[in-house]
């Protein structure tokens, strides 16, 4: 009989490590079991391009935003565990094909000045819009305090205060939390360039023509409040920081260990069984894999039918649209060809947004139908411009994120993948120098991500984002509260509140729920 743990955590992604660290600090015996050779999950980097073995490539996340606003940073003292980041301002720039641009700065007023170069009405609207988003964030902050499944008198009081403070914005706030992001962009902003900027940034949150997707604009509030960091040395730095904090809390980490079953007998969780047949016993299991996978891992009959059904029906890239990622390693740096500004702002330090609002809309229609978009729309992060340490001197890494791409294609990815990557690179090369020196590329579609990581449909938020899947409704109505799915079984990854993105919030919430459960 092996050692018995208080808590076994399935998955050593960032949320699994965060949950483990809180529990370790609370003197629980914790084991994180990770199937991959490295911890970090979707927040990792590696030397994945054989032709460019010295280029460090982010294989998922590249930007740290939510965690900058998260209490996890301070509570787990991440800065003392090797945390090293770089910040850029402007953070993004929409690149007009003719050489013009709109940059997004930390300061919303400066951003509005940039928008004014296209439309002064949009510049005024932007500042009003950001004020509205600030109201939205105040509500989110009040609702996010504590467990969304447990409302206390204090929560209601705080919500009431926020409601009174923002009463003049009530109707607009209701609209923003129920309308599609695309509708809001078109309603608020007259110029296609402004619409392209807004949609280009929120497109990563899923189909922007879906009701309730407008809350994705909260990202703009975060950008102006806390900004964006990039991990120095690639996301490996971030994963290593979390592993270090976790180890310091006394937790154990088992790598190359795939869980085959979350063992539930007579309604009570017993632990996990690995694919090699080893059984690890624990009082509690936290599954930080996606909820659909968690349901499949549970012993047949271990979850009641309603719970299992609701988990299995949680949407994961249900519209067949999700982000693909193309990294290119080059012997040259990536520099903009014609977007040089006369005001001293260096757009090579920003993430470039390429594509019009109409191209994004067309891409969405095509991706839904299982077609590779005729005109690829993407953001390009010239990573080595702010972190030269990830490639040999003078060389480059371009991280190209395609927010609106099909999960499955009708033609099959075997034949569609190479032409799709070539089309992206052809368009990117019209904006940036550096592609002539291409050494190799790493292109991962959602379907590839599912194969590599087991993540259902390669869904980067585990469960689709939207107003109907937030708070206590995430991952599903009735399952977003503190009660375990079966005695001793909790979820703890991006599939629970506050959702996808690198915030550590789900891991922190799961740890709190488990500590309450164990006392
Ligand atoms: C291309 C891309 C770009 C992104 N960009 C950003 C960004 O810029 N900013 C941002 O905030 N977010 C971004 N995200 C989203 C963000 O990375 C994720 O939402 C977040 O990392 C999820 O963390 P997690 O710990 O909940 O889950 P994951 O990172 O998915 O971790 C789950 C872990 O569980 C493990 N696991 C699964 N099944 C088993 C099993 N049976 N046995 C053992 N282990 C198992 C997996 O291997 C994995 O390590 C991006 C994601 C991708 C893919």
TrEMBL record:
What are the Amine oxidase domain coordinates in residue numbering? 16-303
Single GO term (MF): oxidoreductase activity
Q: Which Gene3D superfamilies has this protein been placed in?
A: FAD/NAD(P)-binding domain (3.50.50.60)
Q: Which SUPFAM superfamilies match?
A: FAD/NAD(P)-binding domain (SSF51905)
InterPro entries this protein is in? Answer: Amino_oxidase, FAD/NAD-bd_sf
Pfam families recorded: Amino_oxidase
Q: Which domain of life is it from?
A: Bacteria
- Subunit field text: Interacts with COX5B; this interaction may contribute to localize PYROXD2 to the inner face of the inner mitochondrial membrane.
| Matching PANTHER family | PHYTOENE DEHYDROGENASE, PYRIDINE NUCLEOTIDE-DISULFIDE OXIDOREDUCTASE DOMAIN-CONTAINING PROTEIN 2
Q: What does this protein do?
A: Probable oxidoreductase that may play a role as regulator of mitochondrial function.
Name of the molecule in the record: Pyridine nucleotide-disulfide oxidoreductase domain-containing protein 2
Q: What is the lineage of its organism?
A: Bacteria, Pseudomonadati, Pseudomonadota, Alphaproteobacteria, Caulobacterales
């Amino acid at each position: 009989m092996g050692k018995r743990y208080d808590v076994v955590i399935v998955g050593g992604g960032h949320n699994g490590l965060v949950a483990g660290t809180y529990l370790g600090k609370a003197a629980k015996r914790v084991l994180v079991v990770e199937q991959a050779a490295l911890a970090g999950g979707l927040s990792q980097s590696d030397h994945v391009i054989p032709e460019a073995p010295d280029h460090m490539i982010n294989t998922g996340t590249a930007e740290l935003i939510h965690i900058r606003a998260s209490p996890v940073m301070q509570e787990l003292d991440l800065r003392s565990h090797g945390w090293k980041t770089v910040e850029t301002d402007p953070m993004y720039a929409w690149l007009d094909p003719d050489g013009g641009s709109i940059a997004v700065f930390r300061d919303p007023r400066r951003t509005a000045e940039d928008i004014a170069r296209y439309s002064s009405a949009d510049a005024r609207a932007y500042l009003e819009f950001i004020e509205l988003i600030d109201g939205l964030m105040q509500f989110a902050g009040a609702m996010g305090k504590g467990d969304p499944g447990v409302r206390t008198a204090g929560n209601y009081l705080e919500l009431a205060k926020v409601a009174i403070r923002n009463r003049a914005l009530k109707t607009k706030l209701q609209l923003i939390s129920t309308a599609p992001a695309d509708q809001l962009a078109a309603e608020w902003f007259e110029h296609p360039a402004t619409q392209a900027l807004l949609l280009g940034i929120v497109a990563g949150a899923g189909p922007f023509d879906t009701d309730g997707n407008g809350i994705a604009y909260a990202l703009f509030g975060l950008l102006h409040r806390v900004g964006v960091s990039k991990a120095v040395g690639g996301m490996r730095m971030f994963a290593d920081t979390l592993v270090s904090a976790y180890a310091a809390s006394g937790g154990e980490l088992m790598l190359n260990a795939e869980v085959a079953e979350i063992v539930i007998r007579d309604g009570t969780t017993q632990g996990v069984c690995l694919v090699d047949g080893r059984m690890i016993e624990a009082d509690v299991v936290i599954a930080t894999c996606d909820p659909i996978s968690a349901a499949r891992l549970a012993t047949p009959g271990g979850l009641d039918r309603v719970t299992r059904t609701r988990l299995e029906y949680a949407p994961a890239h249900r519209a067949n649209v999700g982000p693909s990622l193309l990294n290119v390693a080059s012997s040259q740096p990536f520099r903009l060809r014609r977007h040089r500004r006369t005001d001293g702002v260096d757009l090579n330090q920003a993430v470039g947004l390429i594509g019009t609002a109409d191209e994004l809309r067309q891409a969405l229609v095509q991706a839904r139908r299982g077609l590779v978009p005729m005109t690829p729309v993407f953001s390009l992060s010239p990573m080595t411009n702010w972190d030269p340490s990830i490639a040999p001197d003078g060389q480059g890494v371009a991280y190209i994120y395609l927010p609106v791409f099909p999960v499955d294609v009708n033609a099959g990815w075997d034949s569609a993948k190479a032409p799709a990557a070539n089309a992206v690179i052809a368009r990117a090369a019209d904006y940036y120098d550096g592609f002539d020196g291409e050494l190799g590329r790493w292109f991962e579609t959602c379907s590839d991500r599912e194969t590599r990581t087991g993540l259902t449909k390669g869904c980067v938020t585990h469960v689709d984002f939207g107003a109907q899947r937030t708070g206590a409704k995430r991952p599903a109505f009735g399952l977003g509260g503190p009660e375990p799915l079966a005695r001793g079984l909790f979820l703890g990854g991006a599939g629970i509140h506050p959702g996808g993105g690198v915030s550590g919030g789900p891991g922190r919430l799961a740890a709190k729920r488990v500590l309450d459960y164990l006392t």
